[in-house]
Write a structure and sequence with these properties.
Its main location: cytoplasm. Helix 17 crosses helix 25, helix 19 runs parallel beside helix 21 and helix 20 packs parallel to helix 22. By secondary structure, the chain is α/β, with parallel strands linked by helices. The N terminus is likely disordered. It has four domains: 148 residues, Roll (Ubiquitin-like (UB roll)); 159 residues, PH-domain like (Roll); 93 residues, SHC Adaptor Protein, CATH 3.30.505; 255 residues, NAD(P)-binding Rossmann-like Domain (Rossmann fold), CATH 3.40.50.720. The N and C termini lie far apart (76 Å). It is globular, with a radius of gyration of 35 Å.
């Protein structure tokens, strides 16, 4: 028997080194494995191929070799052959009660039960999580994937590769997820007679996690033996293909608790999983062959999780698993019990055992599961798109209507396909200005399931017309609540209606008296979809009139104005405490001050004031709201930074330093917040035309520069201030532009860490990273200001002209109704 196992392993390695397709599998199949028991005098019965699926029959014949042989005595063999002869002479009459008359082991595990290799139907019972049961009549070759596809179709579930058939043994406290290629009938035939074993249909999201992420993200470094450096630089798909083609997975190692056979004692050993089997060291972590003890052969065992490890087996933790040899049908004798320290370690070991046992077959299962459900046997085929029961409908109005004109139906279908293509393209990218009004209408209005202001009676009549099929649903506007929606669905042959109230996100914004903060507060508060409840704060409430005017009807409805000074911890805490449940979903740090001019003319107090607001103000705000965000494991922290946080600009020494500080602070903090599902985004504008900037430069022009040398004062006044005015008029954005970018950032599903609002400055900041020595960027800026100022002014005027033309085009598009 050992020679047969070695022969099979050699065949498995040759399969891994090939193209991993069915043809290669059939061509490389050795005839010696077709009947490994002939030499023992056993006669193999011919298996009738599945009708219409010869490929599946051959694949089944290969997979059947893993089942254990049953010794059939000659007298019993003669009786079975006579019964088959008599039954074959009778006419084929369909069985109206398969659950009562079928000899499936789930109902009658008697010794006279028919062999699972026979091609007749078998009844398999599968339970759901709520205890309900479905009986399926399947052939002997039905795999776990086929069963999942059948149940997904019957239960009207969404097809997903995570659906699995779980084998559960309650009396042993064992369960395992069947692999997609395993024969469910064969597994069922191995159950003990009269037991409580059963199949459960449930989702297992860790089933193919290895193929969705990097293997090194699933397995910690200390568990993977060998040199992982050789695989660095490879993509995830290349890494997986290398392992599958070579057929050699890295050695898995780590500490596990092992239960001694026949005793309740658990001891801790260092285990090694290799192609030849599972071993443990009797001397620490030594790999010396003298200290290694053979534990189990994973190729001849199935790995199960312990559901009641502490109660039934006195396990030291709740994360136990075991290896159950294929030859064991019942009882705990022969079970190889193991226990890990945590759930991650147990998942790693179970995944590694599956990989070592099945190899490339797992990856093929994953690829097949992603193709969607397939139709097997005599199931009802899916409806064709040309089915006469399907009609095109238009839901663009208040009520739906049937489109009778075929040309109009084709036009609507093309428009819908084009709109979805556009939505998919721009899902994770910032939109152009022409897309602004598209999102304000609400993406739900573009969906086929949205029916506008449909009445309750019309809704019920429409669902009844569909045949009262469970799962049919639609969403409509609520006639009682102006901001709500109603979900109407058919469940258990009844129509039910549920009110949906949109959940507003609580947004706290600092520095809202003018400029970017004012534009941000007004933009979010007047959002067409009413997604935000805005708490706009400012240090001096006497300056609130501009914000109140910009908010309009949103004031005291979706916008509240509060007093907050970012330089005072007491003021910050007092403001946050007034917010219901202290819930801040989005924190936008906007408050800031500027300081420009020669360094000799600036006092230390002025410099400290800049850092007190621009840096420590942000830190105080984050410290106040971060603990609550961590408890909820959600949140988004937005910081209005600057391109000067990436690249310093002359005469902005202290201001740039404060922005550099906040960039470094957030860059370090983001690694902690990611653990709690909290996003941090640094929004980095270039020049913005605000009262803040205007006031800063007006004060600079009136400043006293007697403390610096005349040449420096001349450079500041005649070069810097002069060029700044032209830069702001040519490249400057408006506060509304920054607000629009911020709105897009906070509504993204996955927000970026950095975002520059002005694409003109992207190459400028990229110069810094192009040359680590820093010579490139300093020389470019120096020559641009002092040697090629004429060229710089010409470039600025050209950019200004192009932006003016672009604005004219956008205005024309708005007039024509395209935006």
């Amino acid at each position: 028997m050992r020679s047969c196992i070695l022969h099979r392993d050699n065949f498995f390695f040759s399969f891994l080194g090939g193209n991993m397709d069915l043809e290669a599998l059939e061509s490389s199949h050795s005839p010696a494995l077709d009947n490994p028991y002939e030499r023992e005098g056993c006669t193999k019965r011919s298996t009738s191929p599945q009708k219409g699926h010869p490929e599946k029959a051959e694949l089944l014949a290969l997979e059947v070799k893993r089942s254990q042989p049953l010794l059939i005595h000659s007298s019993r063999w003669g009786r079975l052959r006579d019964e088959e002869t008599r039954s074959s002479s009778l006419p084929d009459i369909p069985n109206p009660f398969p659950e009562l008359c079928n000899s499936s082991p789930i109902l009658s595990n008697t010794p006279n039960s028919r062999s699972p290799q026979e091609g007749g139907p078998h009844v398999v019972k599968v339970y759901s999580e709520d205890g309900t049961c479905r009986s399926l009549e399947v052939t002997a070759g039905a795999t776990a994937r086929h069963i999942c596809d059948m149940l997904v179709e019957r239960a009207h579930c969404l097809s997903d590769e995570s659906w699995s058939v779980v084998e559960l043994h309650p009396h042993l406290g064992l369960e395992r997820c069947l692999e997609d290629h395993e024969s469910v009938v064969e597994v069922q035939a191995m159950w003990p007679a009269g037991g409580d074993s059963k199949f459960i249909f449930r989702k297992n999201f860790a089933k193919y996690e290895l193929f969705r992420g990097s293997p090194y993200s699933l397995f910690p470094e200390d568990m993977v033996g060998g040199n992982a450096e050789t695989h660095k630089g490879l993509s995830h798909s290349e890494l997986i293909q290398n392992f599958l083609n070579l057929g050699s997975w890295p050695e898995i190692q780590g500490f596990l608790h092992m239960k001694e056979s026949g005793r309740k004692v658990w001891k801790r050993f260092f285990f090694f999983l290799r192609r030849s089997g599972l071993y443990y060291s009797t001397k620490g972590t030594s790999k010396d062959p003298r200290h290694l003890q053979y534990f189990a052969d994973v190729n001849e065992s199935n790995a199960y999780c312990l559901t009641q490890g502490k109660k039934l087996y006195n396990a030291p933790t709740d994360f136990g698993f075991c290896l159950k040899p294929l030859k064991i049908r019942s009882g705990t004798k022969g079970l190889k019990m193991l226990c890990s320290e945590d759930e991650q370690a147990r998942t790693c070991w179970l995944t590694a055992i599956r990989l070592f046992k099945y190899g490339a077959q797992l990856y093929k299962n994953y690829q097949l599961s992603r193709r969607g459900p397939q139709t097997w046997g005599e199931h009802t085929k899916p409806r064709s798109a040309s089915d006469s029961t399907l009609v095109p409908m238009d839901f663009s109005g208040c009520t739906g209507r049937v489109i009778e004109n075929p040309l109009e139906a084709l036009s609507v279908a093309l428009e819908e396909a084009q709109s979805w293509r556009k939505k998919t393209t721009h899902r994770y990218s910032l939109p152009t200005p022409c897309q602004t009004n598209l999102s304000s209408a609400g993406i739900h209005k573009t969906q086929a399931w949205y029916h506008g202001r449909l009445s309750r009676d019309e809704t019920q009549r429409l669902i009844v017309q569909q045949g009262m099929v469970d799962g049919v649903f639609l969403v409509r506007e609520s006639t009682r609540n102006p901001n709500g929606f109603v979900l109407s669905l058919c469940h258990m042959q009844k129509i039910k209606h549920y009110l949906i109230l949109p959940c507003e996100e609580e947004v706290l914004i600092t520095g809202c008296s003018s400029g970017i903060g004012l534009a941000l507060a007004a933009k979010l508060a007047t959002d067409g979809q009413q997604r935000f409840k805005v708490f706009a704060t400012m240090r001096n409430l006497a300056k609130r009139s501009a914000l109140e005017e910009a908010a309009g009807d949103a004031l005291n409805r979706t916008l509240e104005i509060k007093e907050l000074d970012v330089c005072s911890e007491h003021s910050i805490r007092k403001c946050v405490d007034t917010i219901p449940d202290r819930r801040v979903d989005i924190l936008i740090n906007n408050a800031g001050v500027g300081l420009i001019g020669p360094i000799e003319c600036q006092s230390i107090q002025d410099m400290q004031a800049v850092f007190e607001t621009n840096f420590f103000g942000v830190v105080r705000m984050i410290k106040e709201v971060l603990p609550d965000m961590k408890k909820r494991k959600s949140g988004h922290i937005v910081v209005i930074s600057s391109v000067m946080g990436l690249q310093g600009i002359m005469f902005n020494d202290v201001y740039a330093a404060s922005k550099f500080a906040i960039e470094g602070f957030c860059e370090s903090l983001v690694f902690q917040t990611m653990k709690f599902n909290i996003f941090i985004t640094l929004i980095e504008p270039g020049p913005v035309k605000t009262e803040f900037e205007l006031k800063t430069y007006e004060e600079a022009e009136r400043g006293d520069y007697s403390k610096t040398d005349p040449e420096t004062a001349d450079i500041f006044i005649n070069y810097y201030l002069k060029n700044c005015k032209e830069i702001f008029s040519s490249l400057g954005q408006t506060p509304e532009d920054i607000a629009e970018h911020t709105l897009r950032i906070v509504t993204m599903e996955t927000a970026p860490f950095r975002h520059q609002t002005n694409q003109v400055y992207t190459p400028v900041t990229a110069l810094k990273y192009a040359d680590p020595s820093g010579e490139l960027v300093t020389n470019v800026f120096y020559k641009m200001v002092f040697q090629h100022d004429t060229l710089m002014h010409a470039s600025l005027r050209a950019i200004k002209l192009l932006r003016w033309k672009a604005n004219k085009v956008q205005q024309g598009a708005r007039i024509l109704g395209f935006m």
